[in-house]
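Field: sequence (string)
Field: structure_tokens (string)

Example rows 1 and 2, in order.
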Amino acid sequence: MHIGEKIRQLRMMKNMRQSELVEGICSVAYLSRIENGKTKPSAPFIRAVCQKLGIVPDDICDDDSNKKKQRIANIISQYKKTRILNETDEYLLKISLFESHLLDTRINIYTILIRHYLTDNRISEAQQVFQLSKKSVPDEVPPDLTIEFFYYYLNCGNIFFSTQDYIKATHYYELAERLSNRVGEKDLAILFYNLSLVKQHLSQDKTICLHYSQKSLDIHKKLGNEVDQAKVLITKATQYNLNHQYNQAIKCLDEALEIVLKTENVNFLGMIEYNYGRAYQSKGEIDTAIKHYETCLQLRSKIGAEQPKVHTYRELILIYMERKDLGKVDQYLKEGLRIAETYQQWYHYVEFHMFKALLYKSHFQEQLYEKETQRLIDMAVEKNQLNLAKKMAHDLGRHYYEKNAYKKAADFYDMALRFEALLHAPTTLADSES
């Protein structure tokens, strides 16, 4: 990448117009020629522009500068200690993505930027870095870089988990698991916890996700990490709920609540209330469940945690659909769809639209139900939400069977079987689409 292109990239990262960058320095036309590689910039120009961009000239002038390489190495080392990346260092690392560096440096840069962007909820930027990494990261892991690749795979999995693409997330978490024999116990507990979450969404047999959550819990207990213990206990409660072991779920929540009240970590109270709601909803104690869900939403609002509300809205939608309270259903659907789209939670985004389609059916608008469900199956495939695609195809097959439209019923039953086959081969699918 020539100097002009680096200047252009940095300018765009800072959302600066050409006129803003060169004000008091030169003409926009001169900058355009430099950015297009038609004119070699002068030393005074480089110094002035770099000052405005918040970098030093070495950052863009000499890819092989020992001073620059040492600075990148220092940024990597410092980030691993502090998990803090300032804006200037972020830009230098991002520019370095377009330069030639040794594999260990590249893999560290990819990992740091992905993690940094995910922490700041800048998902699209994390995805951009991931796509760049796929062009230069080899499939085969060098023996001396197993730890670096472990963290790279772990953070790649986190990208797909954040957008609810659990198939691809599983693929990268399982790659990380193969390299986990040399990492610390705390990071191992994080990986096991993440695996428990993706297995929870993909596996019919919930004993698999309970196995991983227990492995994570055992490590946190060994290390004495009470806050992490509470988080895993809440997740175990969710998994017990899914496995129809409601009393076990409540027992986990009681244990988690005791830790949370002792440590005064109010962030987990919303999660606990939500899972109490799930347990009581499943036990048929609906009014008690609603109270827990409403308390959960209040707690989420109090601490400004909007994104997790989507799970609570889902359960309230199901309750009020059953009670045929369409006003409440519409209210929670609007809020749920807004949050799911804003945070790219594609599983819930498709599912909420699926609920809307089911409302058509309940109002005897069968053609609307059929047309919308077929559209949503395509959307679910596009977003890699094959569990939902399978469910909708199966439901549509049963719908047509009940209408004596046996040919259409058979087509959708076959489609559901194809999705089921793909779900049982997640690694292959992830490889082919990465």
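Row 2 begins here:
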Amino acid sequence: MKTHIIYLVSVLAILQGCTASLEVAPRGYLTSGTFYQNETDAKAALIGAYSILQEVYRNEHILTPNEICTDNAVPFLTGGPDRVAIWRYSHNTSNLYPGQIWSSAYEGIQYSNVLIDRLPGVSMNEQQKHVFTAEAKFLRALHYFNLVRFFGDVPLVKNETTNLDDVEIPRSPVADVYQFIEEDLLEAAAALPVNHADNDKGRATAAAATALLAKVYLTRAGNTPSSPYWAQAAAKAKEVIDLNRYDLWEDYADVFALANRGGKESIFEVQFITDIKGNGFTTGYAPRGAPIVPNNGYGIFRVTKSLFDSYAANDKRKAVTFLTSYVHPGTGQTVHLSVDDPDPTVAVSFWKLADPTVRVGLNGGTSWPYLRYAELLLIYAEALNEANNGPTTEAYQALNRVRKRAGLAELSGLDKEAFNAAIMLERRLELCFEGHRWFDLVRRDQLIEAVKAENSFDRNAPITEHHKRFPLPFREIEANKKLEQNAGY
């Protein structure tokens, strides 16, 4: 991906060309009529579609709701009111976060739809055309997967939007959205390559589409013991495992190392470039005002005591995941951080995605690990346990591989419920700060219980059943009269 950043300037005009009928193309601009001519154009547009993921995951769109709307994190309480509102479950239809999630997802869907609709007419190698189409379908499925999990029923836009008269579309049922996601991922898995050249690392592969489909099936199974999706999730996860292309790094810290971007544990990740096209994980989540990062720390949110204390003393992941102290560069004194002290300047911080080499503002280069092999093993273990009404030998092996790397003892002798509880805990500890917790709690019907149990800093959230979906943004309801708001908002 990083070798193609130069194309992004050209792609900025794509949506302008797709949403308006221009008779004359202004000099220096590309329109839908002048752009899609050859493989170079198509590849530039494809990289533009990937760039939407950089915007989604370099900012707070997915990460913040998935952490602070659960029992994992507490926002900076005198900071952004929208962030505090979703933490307290007092948010309304004008809250920033649902709006960001919605708009960025549909922007990404438009990019994919334009590619899928225009590629048949592009003069280029036919095999490469099929690959580009499959990548666009993978990206479209990813965006719809985020949308359906946050909002439930959503408008299902399957083709390029070329006219403002076409934007009023009603919501489609969840089942229809998932069917469309499944179709896209099956087609993508069949057409995508096993891997890409080194300078194209970060683009979707057949394994990425198959692994994402396993996660989709896991989500569709929900909390229903008899769901057929459990077996389907296990089967798709096993397809990827049996490829023998992926493995766990021996050291948990190596998962997030800059040198290991696109490495053996990464099934799909969103890549960044330090100090050039980066993310805000380093400065954004350092303790507020800490002079150890560019611009000092923002302290956007902090770690809950509940999460921090859930790690066993010998869990090797804890020291990698959190910043618990630092040496002040001015005084040379060690600053010890706390999960209890309300002062945000001494708050324990999420740290595993920090880039120690960053020098320019919010421009860290650590990849966003959208789907990695450790999660696939946990998906496989959870799905096998449910599909077989109890853990199998293979389920234990998958779970214990993740635990062994963390320095924890292997588990055995658990019944189905105890194994499920172990999986949920392992997902929380292994995957925290990677944008999974809210999705996990919702799909297993544990959100309300978890949020009510996390009352640090006087949270006392009045959470109810309707909070398992986010409200549709007010501006979208106003613009599209065919949309109906989620119940309770």
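free_text_note (row 2): The CA atoms of residues 51 and 272 lie 10 Å apart.
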